[in-house]
Amino acid sequence: MRHAIVILVLLAGGLLFACSSGKHQEAPGAASKTADEGCGCGQSEAEELEFWRNAYRERFGKEPPEWLQAYRNKFGKIDDVEMRASGGYAGAGGAAGARAAPWPKRRRSPYAGIVAWDADADEVWVIERYYTEGGDTDVERAPAHCQLQAKVADVQVPMPLEHTAVEGEITLHLATVKITQRYKNPYDQKIEAVYTFPLPQNAAVSDFLMKIGDRTIRGIVREKEEAKRIYKMARRHGHVASLLQQDRPNVFTQSVANIEPQKSVDIEITYFHTLRFVDNEYEFVLPTVVGPRFNPPGRTDGIGAVGRGSRGHSGQAREITYLKPNEISSHELSFSVNVNVGAKIAKLYSPTHAIVKKDLGENRVQVTLRESDNIPNRDILLRYRLADPAEVRARMVTFEAGDGGGYFLMVLDPPRTAENIPQSPREMVFVLDCSGSMQGQPLETSKRAVRRALRRLDQNDTFQVIRFSNQASPMGSRPLPATPKNIKKGLRYLDSLEAKGGTMMEYGIHAALKPAADAERRRIVTFLTDGYIGNEKDVLRIVKNEVGDSRIFSFGVGSSVNRYLLERMASHGRGVATYVRNDESSRRAVDGLYKRLERPALANVSLKWAGAGVSDIEPAVIPDLFVGRPVVIAGRYSGTRMRRLFVTGTVGGKPREIVVDLGDPVTHPAIAKVWARARIAGLHDAAISGQVSQSEAAGEIRQTALQHGLVSDFTSFVAVDSLSRTAGTEGTTVRVAVPVPDGVKYETTVDD
Amino acid sequence: MKRWLVPIALLAVTLAGRGQDASPFQAYDVFIDAGDSALAVYQVEIRASKGALVTGVEGGVAPFAQAPYYDPAALQGGRIVIGAFTKNQNVPRGRVRVARLHMMEENGAATYTVKVIAAAGPDGEKTPAKIELARVGEKR
Fold it and tell me: What's the predicted TM-score (pTM) here?
């Protein structure tokens, strides 16, 4: 039954599912249904659940797993999955169960709600609910939001963050994003609103506006402590003021002081970032929620996760407040991104959200979210593929600094002619995060990926499986040869893994990298985690110090992964980061890993530029080039523009040189800021690895950020309205509570 | 007994004033006067005495109503270089409020040095202009 995928499709309009809008917004105190009342379709939820449990038993001959009882449905495209159906779908309405209407063989489902995977049999169960759009062909055919879970009445919690509007423009491989957060005070006394939110880890935050009524004040970038002092002073004196601080490269906190009852203040943030490019697809990512972080005992500089009403419980410098499972926020999200890449787009889709596409002409497309899909509880991914990939791969984008030089950004493609080279044996180490935040779907997703990877091992490889939570423990005392018998043993070990406890990631890294290396095999470490830790710097330092000649390929698992950690781990380990959502096949990620291992396009890369003086290249050490994963390089130039680039390296140990004709550059005003952000990341890395001292790095980061007007670890934006002074002393601080990311369990992650 | 009255009276005054003591935050309007010439572009430098910091930049009147940009590289303590331009054909002449600065003055009222770096009309032709900084009265 391998590779066969069984689909059980249900079009039972609300029969099994709890809702069609994704939200149960009941006013506090409103009468609520009990879990057993079901959705009003005549069948209780207990009965519905039992139907599915029986179906599972019948299908797979064993007891259904936990996810069948508490699964939050998500929808996504699964076009990378070939389907062979043995199920069908029912007509509109009707009774429970799969009906006999056959699904065409080997048909690719346009859009479907993936309910679950059975990894042992490589089977997927899909529950799909067609959504018919009257004549609007641009609307993605996505199902309405549904939930398969015990239903309890949701309580809408008033929040000072009313709305977040995201407007983006993608040109070339760069995104310019404007985020407008509307803070409104729903209480009867003045407040300070504090909201911790994520941004892409490479976002160069360079503009900050505070809007009060029809007045707009542009914020000023200041050294972090000075900005905080100004803000506190303004707050104490009753002025409306705002402060934007960076907690991590991908975590920011916005504070808005002295919002009077029923008044609102808009904060507008603008940032730039480069897009990911994977296997001929550009990927735009908008994270919407910070996952609940674990902080090792004794640390106080992490990011705590507490429930509403539990402020201060975590003991961490920064705390995020999470909504309880039966609570929903009034905070909503709107999203509009224009894709304007100057070339024909062959494919544009979101694997995570239902979107609406509007053709603006001249190869420009506007993408918005469907109204029913605007809960900020998972990353928004947008991917596009060009009709002719060679058309727009602008190799060089520049920005003149006015001093006879400027900044540049270029995409370095791996050689397309990389040949298959004989494989040297590998020591494959799979490290699974089995902490509480991985409980349920994330760990199941990790297991699926590792199962698939184990089955693809070469007979000359060895393998090891390591789990970690509060401690780390390997499957065996040493890596095992990849014999069929040992692989079965590995699969059984995977089955036994459970998720609970803390995330002592450093133990997992030690366990993977500390043992003596096998002289005959290159160690490849695959690290599967959601990255929900508050001590990223410690972990990255250990990776940097212990990685040696090993390679690290990080797998981010879940809906709202800590991409900063995953990307930097892979970078330090000269590998690449890959992401697998809970509702996604692991096939693409695992096969991609093996494709890169089997075809390391160019290693030990160095660059030589012809035609200009080039300096301050980021990344300072060019990583290995892997098929389908170009490297973005930023730098400064002086004199005349660059003409050609000579890329040298090795393939299979043999020297290789590639000459890249840089052509005519395209200009983009954000390049200097994008370079500055990359420079800051490089300085952080240098400090972590001890190449420069902490104070030296801090000084240079501060100077770079101030020079380019960027938020950083050492600089913040502050804005004060000296004209609007509210009565009385500073108001009550209200933290904006956020949902735990989709697929993450509140009970195992939040300090309540 | 009288010896205690004065300190108690002072304490009472202090506590009473704690909620709304004098704020160190102050706004200043930036005016440019290009005389009879039209003003479409400007760049000015404003320098405050020690102890004063810029805490925000706001726009002025149309067509300079949008908050002007500043040069982050030139920003140092109380020094800021701001500038704006308009493509609007109906550009103002005479004295125009082009921006408003929000300042924090920790050492009492600061002194300011102002300078026009550049001013030009719609055709890009440079024009002589004067700059003036005016303290804005506090609004409650």
Answer: 0.81
